[in-house]
Amino acid sequence: MDFKPIKAKKIYEEIIEQIKVMITRGELNPGDKILPERELAEKLQVGRAAVREAYRALEAIGIIEIRPGEGTFVREMGSKPMTDIMSLAVITGKDTLFELLELRKIVEVEAAGLAALRRTEDHLGEMKRWLNLMKEEIDQGSLGDVPDTKFHYAITNAACNSLLTRTMNSISETIKQEMKTILTNMYRTPGTPQQLYEQHKRIFEEIASGNEMKARTAMFYHLDRAEKILKKEMTTFECKLP
Predict the structure, then answer these.
(1) Cα 234 to chain center, whole Å?
(2) Domains of the chain, residue spans
(3) Topology of domain 11-74, per CATH?
(4) pLDDT by residue (tens digit) across 107-131?
């Protein structure tokens, strides 16, 4: 029998868990105002510091929004039904996030293969534009994360499949909204932006050459490496929380 050690949760983690459960059950909805720190601390019979840390963590991962002078609110998740469902799924736990990343592999690897077969010169020009901008930003010390995302959109568009494009939009928007802090940490890891640029360049070259299988392989390698980095950074982010 494989038993795992039981880890005692900190008070702020218990508060986070309760708020997440209330959101998934529909007891708290996007736009709803949450109790102020003092009131929630009294209700839960805990110190205000624990509530403050819980709110800080929830805000960092995009679940709540603290508006100075107004209060604390459950963050609006977006207007598209697909995005709303995925956003709600993400806040239920990190395992769901990695399921989304697995889905991204499925979608984008195939998109890269189709793009190699169907891309036009205009599609290649769009990809090249974002690739060049990514390198330019990285060379200037910036993250290059925005042209990175745009590059992936351009590849999906080059696949010429509207459902692939819609699926990609839903996944990318969710990751951007819910994991903004962690993604920023990922791109700030020394050497990571340069590595990601080289991987993007390889993907572009294979698509431009029309090599369907190599385009798929290059995309899979890139997403697999990015997932490993994200997992590492997520662990670091969790450890940094008080």
Answers:
(1) 11
(2) 11-74, 81-240
(3) Arc Repressor Mutant, subunit A (1.10.10)
(4) 899 999 999 999 999 999 999 999 9
